[in-house]
Design a protein that fits this description.
Strand content: 15-25%
Largest sheet: 5 strands, mixed, barrel
CATH topology of the largest domain: Rossmann fold
Structural class: alpha/beta
Order of helices and strands: HEEEHEEHEHEHEHEHEHHHHHEEEH
Distance between the termini: 195 Å
Strand order of the largest sheet: 1-2-3-5-4
CATH class of the largest domain: Alpha Beta
Oligomer: single chain
Length: 425
């Protein structure tokens, strides 16, 4: 039984004072009551220590992303129910509830249930995160940037004195000896890996002299490569302004960093080969290009020389005045033909005109008069065609070939009529 609090003791901690304090057991009692109201929580962590003493087991759990550890007590009967025994380094989820031991004032964590996290669970979580980030567009191809053709300074994030670091430096120097590196050695596995890799990435990204950043790590188990599938690191890579190359593990390893990086290299050695060109290959290409240009220029010069020779051999260039002479002869000949044609046309027109003039003259009244005919007209100029038009006494104008006569109309006499009849008969 816990001793009861005196009636005169303060009800709350804020009401205590140096003159009216709580007894120590009152504080312990209130802490226990407060802690016992806290609900149990499921947490995920990694076992770094495991000691079993009789039916009790004492574990030390460490956060997977931070340097935070917690001691946990669990009954051995709970561990005995597991299909496989737990070991140091195992990743687990455990249900924890705080417990306050009043006699010593010690706070401890009690575990009522614990379950190992298998590879299947880890892969399922990574796949869910992969789909969520892909839906945001972080893995889209249009977001990926092209690497510079020849980076002057390369940022390298890798483990301390790791084989991955040596592979990248050695192979890059063999391909392009003048390449420079800005190296950041960090933890590439464990609780601090995500924070250190992310910090190094941001530091190199802020350096304007760095043209490309390589994140390299050798092979390892799925648990060892988990930091490179962490959401914080993936988002940091997506936000980087400098192109990022992922060179994690081996060909079969596919952390989420490979999906968001601008270029995925299967190994650190492959990364070194893909970020810098091979100086020997580039020199060979320069020689090939120079030879190709020389051949093409030589061929072009020869072709143009042949064309010039062909043009110079043409008659128009061998005897350029021949074209003028030929055209002058054509002009002379055409001028002569034109003159002949014009003279002939004029002569024919003159003949036609003379013929028409003769026809007109032959058909003119004057010609008729010249042949002895006369034209009888009244004073008004009308031609007399019928005797009735000129009664007796009518003045007449008789026009003959050489001039005019004036006469007076007379009716025909009987003897004249008989003569006409006789003439008709």
């Amino acid at each position: 039984m816990l001793p009861s609090m005196p009636v005169t003791a303060p009800a709350t901690a804020a009401e205590t004072s140096a003159d009216n304090p709580w007894p120590l057991h009152v504080l312990s009692q209130k802490l226990k009551m407060h802690i016992e109201r806290a609900p149990a929580a499921w947490v995920e962590a990694q076992i770094i220590e495991l000691n079993r003493r009789g039916n009790a087991c004492y574990l030390t759990l460490r956060d997977t992303d931070a340097e935070i550890s917690l001691s946990v007590t669990i009954w051995g009967s709970v561990l005995d129910q597991l299909a496989a025994p737990l070991q140091r380094g195992s990743r687990v989820v455990a249900q924890l509830k705080p417990d306050f031991w009043m006699k010593t004032g010690r706070l401890s964590m009690q575990s009522r249930d614990i379950r190992p996290v298998g590879l299947g669970d880890l892969l399922a979580r990574i796949e869910i995160l992969r789909q969520a980030l892909a839906a945001e567009g972080l893995f889209a191809a249009e977001r990926k940037r092209r690497l510079p053709l020849l980076p002057h300074r390369i940022g390298l994030v890798t483990g301390r004195d790791s084989d991955a670091k040596k592979d990248v430096l050695r192979n890059a120097a063999l391909r392009w000896p003048a390449v420079e590196f800005e190296i950041r050695e960090v933890a590439v596995q464990g609780a601090t890996a995500v924070a250190q890799v992310t910090a190094a990435l941001r530091e190199l990204d802020a350096d304007p002299a760095v043209d490309v950043i390589v994140i390299a790590r050798g092979g390892g188990s799925l648990e060892d490569l988990l930091p490179f599938s962490h959401e914080d690191l993936i988002r940091a890579v997506a936000a980087a302004e400098t192109p990022v190359v992922s060179a994690i593990g081996h060909e079969a390893d596919r952390p989420l960093l490979d999906e968001v990086a601008d270029l995925r290299a299967s190994t650190p050695t492959d990364a070194a080969k893909r970020i810098v060109p091979d100086v020997a290959e580039e020199l060979a290409r320069v020689r090939q290009a120079r030879d190709g240009l020389r051949r093409r220029v030589t061929h072009l010069v020869h072709t143009e020389q042949d064309r010039l020779a062909s043009l110079r051999s043409r008659p128009v260039l061998v005897n350029p005045e021949g074209m003028v002479t030929l055209r002058a002869d054509d002009v002379t000949r055409l001028r002569s033909r034109a003159r002949t044609a014009a003279a002939t046309s004029v002569a024919r027109a003159e003949d036609t005109l003379a013929h028409l003039r003769a026809q007109v003259r032959a058909l003119s009244p004057q010609k008729t008069l010249d042949r002895g005919y006369a034209v009888v007209q009244l004073d008004d100029g009308s031609v007399v065609r019928d005797p009735d038009q000129a009664p007796d006494g009518t003045d007449l104008r008789i026009r003959v070939a050489a001039g005019e006569l004036h006469a007076e109309a007379r009716r025909n006499r009987p003897q004249e009529n008989s003569m006409k009849e006789n003439a008709k008969s």
